[in-house]
């Protein structure tokens, strides 16, 4: 019943990528990806959240009555997110200011409830932990890629404001890729977020289509062993 | 995966109790985390404010702890009516060196634009910072000091340079640039900075003499309005 650990990782990062395939959690995905660093910051916070909630949900499976499980998931997620918010505020204050409302809003990222319900509540703790890690990593990578695309188009740089996340050490990290670039305004505005995300999804589909042509027998087996996608 | 069979109504109490217990557990955990992070968060807020103040009045120009040498008052009329304005004072020895005013331009394109305005004792601007705003990114959002140098154009200016009539954006006949596609935002900031300086000119001495408040804005209010009234009343009283 529990898929192999490798399968869990591939599922979370690629096959069922939250941002690009399952298409959940758009609110933060589109709102905070103006730069790589804010994307990475929210990605890390979300990763930590889904790892913690998956682990707790898996540990409490069997103890919870069916009718109240969703309420309990929400309670667990809200508690974990609030704790993470306080820690970010205490140690990464500038990042906290930059992410603003989107840290508390991690609670409303349905991808997290979905992993709790479809995976963590039915599998042993370590598998659930790994699934949380893979899901979070997939989401984080999407956020960072989207941030990179938009920052490159909008500012002509990468990793600007890295000090938000890494303190004084991060100040030298900014790479100016397109010097003298005035910036393509649309990329930083909300429409740019939608367009960039569309491009990313198209790119992923193209890659997925190409690899399935190349190794047909292999992917065939993979898709057959994927009941979780049906449930999602 | 075992789904529980339906049971009688009495069984509603058990899940309700479980939920209540879990909610209490969650609250207790969060109270612990809040207790643990609270001192650090307070320090971070203080440090962030201090860094902004230091950027406006460099350490060499004052030797007091500006963050603690402050008071707030409620503006009753004019552009800032209804706002609580905070005055941070910089002193070198016993001499007034500068003030930093924390106030908001109320008429931005999308609500308040929170500002810090640094004015030295002679009335010259030491700098203007935007601490938060909700202007359109890329248009009015260019007032962000991280994104453009526009705010730096205020440094070194005063009500003598340019004279008050010049404290407008170019489009309105003043000396300050507006942004391409955004006039309302710069207009609001220029206007707020001008009024802040006028306020400073009027109240300079009483601001530096103010005992400051350790416990919040309430204490200073009656004191200030008293002074303000007596200032205005004086000429009239002399005439009588």
Describe the structure.
The complex is a heterodimer of chains A (232) and B (240). Chain A contains 13 helices and two strands, in the order ααααααααβαβαααα. Chain A is mostly helical and 232 residues long. Chain A has one domain (5-227). Chain A has a two-stranded antiparallel ribbon. Mean pLDDT of chain A is 82; it is low at 216-232. Chain B is α+β, with helices and mostly antiparallel strands. Chain B has a five-stranded antiparallel β-sheet with strand order 1-2-3-4-5, sandwiched between helices. Chain B is globular and about 80 Å long. Chain A binds chain B through residues 34, 64-68, 71-72, 75-76, 78-79, 82-83, 86-87, 89-91, 93-94, 97, 122, 161, 183, 185, 188-189, and chain B through 1, 3-4, 14-15, 18-19, 22-23, 26, 29-30, 33-34, 37, 40-41, 44-45, 47-48, 137-139, 146.
Spatial arrangement of strands, main beta sheet of chain A = 1-2
Q: Helical residue percent of chain B? A: 25-40%
Average residue pLDDT of chain B: 80
Euclidean distance between termini CA atoms of chain B: 93 Å
The SSE order of chain A reads HHHHHHHHEHEHHHH
Oligomer: heterodimer
Strand/helix succession of chain B? HEEEEEHH
Rg calc of chain B: 25 Å
Task: Give a count of the beta strands of chain B, DSSP E runs of length 2 or more.
Answer: 5
- Taken together, the total number of domains of chain B comes to 2
Largest interface summary: A-B, 28 and 25 residues
Morphology of chain B: globular
How is this fold's topology laid out?
The complex is a heterodimer of chains A (232) and B (240).
Chain A: H1 5-15, H2 18-22, H3 26-31, H4 36-59, H5 69-91, H6 93-99, H7 110-118, H8 125-155, E1 157-158, H9 163-166, E2 175-176, H10 185-188, H11 190-214, H12 216-224, H13 227-231
Antiparallel strand pairs in A: 1-2
Chain B: H1 13-56, E1 70-74, E2 84-92, E3 95-108, E4 111-120, E5 125-132, H2 184-209, H3 220-239
Antiparallel strand pairs in B: 1-2, 2-3, 3-4, 4-5
């Amino acid at each position: 019943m529990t898929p192999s650990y490798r399968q869990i990782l591939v599922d979370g990062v690629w096959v069922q990528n939250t941002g690009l395939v399952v298409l959940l959690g758009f609110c933060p995905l589109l709102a905070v990806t103006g730069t790589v660093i804010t994307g990475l910051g929210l990605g890390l916070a979300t990763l930590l959240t889904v790892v913690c909630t998956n682990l707790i949900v898996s540990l409490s499976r069997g103890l919870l009555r069916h009718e109240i499980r969703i309420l309990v998931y929400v309670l667990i997620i809200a508690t974990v997110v609030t704790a993470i918010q306080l820690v970010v505020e205490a140690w990464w204050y500038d990042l906290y200011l930059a992410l603003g409302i989107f840290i508390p809003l991690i609670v409303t990222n349905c991808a997290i409830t979905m992993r709790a319900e479809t995976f963590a509540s039915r599998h042993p703790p370590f598998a659930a932990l790994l699934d949380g890690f893979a899901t979070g990593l997939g989401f984080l990578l999407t956020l960072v890629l989207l941030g990179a695309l938009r920052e490159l188009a909008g500012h002509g740089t990468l990793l600007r404001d890295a000090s938000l996340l890494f303190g004084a050490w991060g100040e030298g990290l900014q790479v100016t890729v397109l010097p003298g670039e005035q910036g393509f305004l649309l990329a930083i505005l909300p429409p740019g977020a939608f367009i960039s995300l569309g491009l990313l999804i198209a790119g992923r589909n193209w890659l997925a289509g190409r690899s399935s042509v190349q190794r047909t027998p292999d992917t065939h087996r993979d898709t057959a062993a994927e009941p979780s996608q049906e449930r999602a | 995966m075992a789904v529980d069979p339906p049971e009688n109504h009495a069984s509603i109490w058990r899940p309700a109790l479980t939920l209540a217990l879990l909610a209490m557990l969650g609250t207790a955990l969060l109270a612990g985390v809040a207790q643990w992070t609270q001192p650090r968060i307070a320090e971070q807020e203080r440090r962030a404010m201090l860094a902004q103040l230091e950027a406006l009045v460099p350490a060499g120009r004052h030797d007091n702890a500006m963050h603690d040498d402050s008071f707030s008052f409620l503006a009753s009329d004019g552009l800032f009516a209804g706002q609580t304005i905070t005055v941070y004072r910089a002193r070198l020895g016993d001499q007034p060196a500068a003030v930093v005013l924390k106030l908001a331009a109320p008429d931005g394109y999308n609500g308040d634009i929170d500002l810090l305005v640094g004015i030295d004792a002679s009335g010259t601007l030491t700098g203007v910072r935007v601490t938060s705003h909700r202007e359109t990114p890329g248009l009015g959002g260019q007032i962000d000091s991280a994104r453009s140098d526009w705010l730096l154009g205020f440094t070194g200016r005063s009500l003598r340079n340019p004279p008050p009539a010049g404290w407008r954006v170019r489009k309105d006949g003043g000396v300050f640039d507006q942004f391409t596609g955004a006039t309302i935002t710069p207009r609001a900031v220029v206007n707020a900075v001008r009024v802040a300086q006028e306020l400073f000119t009027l109240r300079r001495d009483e601001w530096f003499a103010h005992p400051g408040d350790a416990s919040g804005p309430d204490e200073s209010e009656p004191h200030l309005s008293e002074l303000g009234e007596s200032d205005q009343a004086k000429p009239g009283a002399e005439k009588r």
